[in-house]
Amino acid sequence: MTSIRLVLGDLTTQDVDAIVNAANHTMLGGGGVDGAIHRAAGPKLLEACRRVRKTTFRDGLPTGEAVATEGFDLPARWVIHTVGPTWAKTIDKSDLLVSCHTRSLAVADEVGARSVAFPAISTGAYHWPMDDAARIAIATVHGAMTGVEEVRFVLRGQAAYDVFAVELERQQG
Ligand code: AR6
Q1: What is the percentage of the chain residues whose pLDDT exceeds 70?
Q2: CA pair distance 169, 99, nearest whole angstrom
Q3: Whose CA is closest to atom 24 on ligand 1?
Q4: Element (H, E) at 66
Q5: What share of the chain in percent tops pLDDT 90?
Q6: Atom 12 in ligand 1: residue holding the nearest Cα
Q7: How many A from CA of 152 to the centre of ligand 1?
Q8: 3-172 domain in CATH 3.40.220.10?
Q9: Nearest-angstrom CA–CA distance, 6 and 151
Q10: Whole-prediction pTM value?
């Protein structure tokens, strides 16, 4: 069984085997947590992402898919890049947000990562409501078949942390 921990802080400083990047299709960087990860990992991360684009995902990383690179200057050995769905009121894309989490854990298993830190995928530039993202993320990790022993959700800001804490309590209680 995977244990879930909540942390209020910065994903890029986490001392875990792998951190998950809320990336975009291009894998060539962006704002939010993606920008912070590229700044902290150094320029070799962008080179590694370009290699993945040339070899494996020539048309870009699809939404809900995940792929690992090294972490370079990060404390984490691996970065698992995934692309969250954008929020849309009239279309239910939750299966894609589920897939981000299950595929990231599957990739973590492939590289042998036992501790994995996630941001709140899709809740920034992609506008997914924090409470629904927390519900999906926590339920998916609880239900996953994985060798990952610890999942850390690293939340930036007390409000996001509190939403995850209420949801974790609700699902575990
Ligand atoms: N540590 C932890 N959480 C963070 C950090 C950090 N250093 N920085 C931001 N967050 P976002 P998305 C939170 O926008 O919604 C990028 O440009 C943030 O407060 O990073 O999946 C990509 O290239 C929010 O709760 O990711 C894509 O184009 C959460 O991380 C697009 O944004 C996710 O916000 C992806 O959008």
Answers
A1: 100
A2: 23
A3: 124
A4: strand 66-70
A5: 98
A6: 122
A7: 16
A8: yes
A9: 9
A10: 0.98
